[in-house]
Request: fold
Amino acid sequence: MSKNKALLFGNEAIAHGAREAGVYFASAYPGTPSTEILEIFSRFPGIFAKWSPNEKVALEVGIGACLTGTRTLVTMKHVGVNVAMDPLMTFTYTGVVGGFVLVSADDPEMHSSQNEQDNRIIAKFAKIPVFEPADSQEAHDFTMQAYDLSEKYNTPVMLRETTRIAHAKGLVELGEWREPIRGEGFERDTQRFVMMPNFARPRHSFVERRTLELAKFSDEWDGNILELKGKDIGVITDGVAYQYIRELLPDASFLKVGMPWPFPAGKARKLAEHVKRVIVVEELEPFLEEEATFAGLKVEGKKYFPREGELNLDKVAKGLYEANLGPKPAPPRTPADNVVNRPPVLCAGCPHRGIYMALKKVNADVYGDIGCYTLAALPPLNALHTCFCMGASIGNSIGASLASKDPKHPQIAVIGDGTFLHSGLTGLMDLVYSNANATVVIVDNSITAMTGGQDHPATGRDLMGNEAPVVNFERVIEAIGIKKITILDTYNYDKALEQLKESIEYEGPSVVIARRACALFPKKLRPSPYVVEADCNGCAACFRIGCPAIMPSDTEKTPKGLAKAVIDPNACTGCTLCSQVCPIDVIHPIHVEEEVKA
Amino acid sequence: MSTNGMTNILIVGVGGQGVVLASNILCEVALRAGYDVKKSEIHGMSQRGGVVSSHVRFGDKVYSPLVANGQADAVLAFEVAEALRFAHEVKEGGRLFASVQKIKPPSGGGKKVVPYPEDAVERAINVCAGKVVPIEAEKIALELGNSRLTNTILLGALSTGIDIDDQIWLATIKSMVPPKTIDLNLQAFQRGKDVVK
Reply:
């Protein structure tokens, strides 16, 4: 093994590829499975990397850097590209100055997402070329080549990866770092950069000419690999789907597509001329299938392979059998039934727990948002009732309040601190403007927790590890025009419930800031565990708060045969909520005497 | 024990148990043995106490990053209910190395909650096409004086199901654990191997 070969995740490989390509500037909003790219890139010397409050701003920041002639990287998850679509759809007209790559990390199977949209379609819609790597080595190589393509054809380039590329490790041969490329500064060019109608029309013509040139490039590019072997079957495929079908049909002819759009139609025709039958194997939408069909080829694809979820060896083998191209697969091995479920839960000591206990108590309709706190929709809390996209909660609560025939019915939006900065501010303005009777609860754990603890404009730190100015929630909310602002501590249940009720009863818009630092970030809470005493009566009140540190005991039963509660001292953080809901007061800190002494 | 020169391993457990670290060590061992290696796992929501599974494949040339259904040469389970959950993934002649440690999920989910499988090992034996090897990893670790050694004990057991020289395992472990704990970790690795004998 050569010295500069390493086993890397796709995301690590992209960060290295960008560094080797001389990227100086990177901006992003974190989102699974894209987050690690910038975290890794930010640790390289000689570059600049930042989180932005949302994907639209991240892209706009990236465009600004690009216009100075600087090589720029912007990363986001698939649904983040929806947020960034507005600038993207016009950035394609202006083209680039410094090379520009937008990474879209898609999530087929929705391992950690609210939908499984296929962003190859967005690339085509925006008329920007899209590269799609099939392993970590290609993630690295395609990233580097994307910068040359971007500058040569004057276009932003999308690098689309999926979870099984982003979070799969493979061997990567790394190259030398080149000096980061920073431009001299913005050079004015009104006809190119001011996209008003008269200037935009010729740029649209430019885009159409560029598309024709890119189509030629796609047919010549060695990342679209035509491998002519057996004459019976030809496969058109891309991304991780290639790995499954290549393993199952080693002797077939292949067009392995590294650039889904513009589609390498000439190479596809050569494949079709070589073989009797062409099948298309791809995850999610029939993108390559439609492109090949549009190029006049007779191909088959989604007839045999699912449009939903990820592919794997088993699904592809099943499709091949149905297409009469493979043996009948052995019947799938059946897993054991009734194995215990492990739904994701709020952590032990999670500061969100207390506010949801209170929301459950007041039986409010809770319009939710995206973050760890979405987990409160699950049992036993069941205290969150919608989840659409980043920032949706506030708008949802306004509409529900205005349309409701019962204006007194409590309408609550729950939104995290990071999500509020991402897309909550405009919603809050509408709340003030419409004077709706809704309460916005900002669950402020002072970090972007769900994606692994990233900083944002209210945490006081930046991605490079420096101190940063802090956005002050109370002052922003007050300035927008909210008259009723309540700050509460979610570890103090009775008081929090009382404050929440008071805010809900207030007529007109109100905001509650439920503030407590995340139990994991920036520092994991040091355990100061509690213990359940022997006279627990098994009432289960503490189980209903959904804390993973408390469970029914296997061995300790009450005289009536109910399981007593037991607390895992390694998991308990001492948040005290279980102790607060215990009706007979039998949950207390361990080592009381020592604490008193201290 | 591999199929067509390809070795398929699943390492499974509960978020926070060290599944990812163990699969990283296995990948390094396979790399040092001269193989092409791929591994795939799911991050994100799984870190909130959910099920974690890491697929590791190595051979002359690896395509799919995922192991096919029922084709694992070995499954290494850090938790006994997870051993049951993945028991069907072991191929005929393969092995399920199952730590007998129990981690129960939070309670309070209402009446529909599936109870924890107290008889997980017995049920796994019925489901698994290969051999089930229960391992009292926590107990052995405590005998050695440090509960953190469970990871290395389990890797020691797994090593008996993989055709790679012990010297490569030992050198890899030496290079990947804190220097002060090298001797203990080498003992733990041997104790894990001894369980299988």
About this structure: Chain A has a mean pLDDT of 95.
